[in-house]
Specification:
The protein has about 300 residues and is α/β, with parallel strands linked by helices. It is about 65% helix and about 10% strand. It has helices at about 1-60, 90-110, 120-130, 145-160, 200-205, 220-305; strands at about 75-80, 115-120, 135-140, 170-180, 185-195. The longest helix is centred in the last third of the chain and has 84 residues, at about 220-305.
Length: about 300
């Protein structure tokens, strides 16, 4: 019994230490969510207005720019997947990877080849383990991205869509990330960044009662698009990175809270087993003492006769 009690005590100590770690990680993630939410909110007006400006330039001129013009028969697409650098965040990265796999299957069904770009060690490890080709990857900043990170990611993507497919370029640019809805809800979504869907943007503006302004362009609409569209891609990627970071913190907080609660339940269960083992040990010791006293009494009575 003594050995069994020691086993329970060691397990309780180990689970208690783990509970302290998960509780600390939960509190750290909770403190980072607020900051991440503020960054997401701060980035939204810039991204929205930049999208409107690009749309206004594209619709207010007769310029057929390669970044806003639909290809008649697109043959190749690039997919940017945003995952996390660290684990212990529940199904955060796996949900994003599943969404990317569904998008990949849909594009393949349309007859398009897919070039994959990945942000985050989890996505890189997933594709590396399966020996799948990755065009380019970036790691080390998923929990706290900066605009410079988005700019670094956007450069090869913009370069690829400006090339002909015969030279290794792509016709479309898609992004897969985890959208932050609330503290309890984060959804893995995919969207097409380029070519810009002008009809959809005009429809959204009409629903909001907005009127897209008319401009005169100097030196030309094409030059304006050349300057604006890279900023548009950077802003879209930056906003997605910020939403993904907020989602990662929220998912980690939820996972760590669940782990902390489970550790507390396990400690209670082990404490009950330890108490039962201690009671059984005490009962056995009392029985041995009573049995020994009875044996001595019987021996003394026999000697008196």
């Amino acid at each position: 019994m003594g050995a069994q009690l020691r086993v329970y005590k060691r397990r309780i100590q180990a689970v208690t230490a783990t509970k302290k770690i998960t509780k600390a990680m939960e509190m750290i993630a909770a403190s980072r969510i607020v900051k991440a939410q503020r960054k997401v909110a701060a980035s939204m007006p810039y991204a929205t207005e930049l999208t409107r400006a690009v749309t206004a330039v594209a619709t207010g001129s007769n310029t057929k720019h390669p970044l806003t013009t639909e290809t008649e028969a697109p043959a190749r697409a690039a997919v940017l997947l945003l995952t996390s650098d660290r684990g212990l965040a529940g199904g955060y990265s796996s949900n994003a990877i599943k969404a990317a796999e569904r998008l990949r299957e849909r594009l393949a069904a349309e007859g398009k080849e897919v070039d994959t770009y990945i942000v985050g060690r989890k996505g890189v490890a997933y594709y590396g383990f399966r020996e799948r080709k990755v065009s380019e990857s970036w790691t080390g900043f998923t929990d706290s991205p900066e605009y410079s990170d988005a700019k670094k990611i956007a450069e090869p993507l913009i370069a690829s869509i400006q090339k002909d497919t015969a030279e290794g370029g792509v016709d479309e640019l898609h992004i897969v990330f985890t959208e932050f809805v609330s503290m309890m809800t984060q959804n893995a979504v995919d969207g097409r960044m380029l070519p810009l869907s002008l009809d959809k943007t005009e429809e959204e503006s009409t629903e909001k009662g907005e009127i897209l302004p008319l401009f005169e362009f100097e030196p030309s609409a094409e030059d304006v698009l050349d300057a604006l569209l890279p900023r548009y891609v950077e802003s879209r990627i930056y906003n997605a990175l910020l939403q993904a970071a907020a989602s990662e913190h929220a998912a980690r907080r939820r996972a760590m809270k669940s782990a902390t609660d489970n550790a507390g339940d396990l400690i209670k269960s082990l404490s009950r087993l330890a108490n039962a083992a201690r009671q059984a040990e005490i009962t056995q010791e009392i029985s041995e003492i009573v049995g020994g006293a009875g044996a001595l009494a019987d021996a003394s009575a026999g000697s008196d006769k």
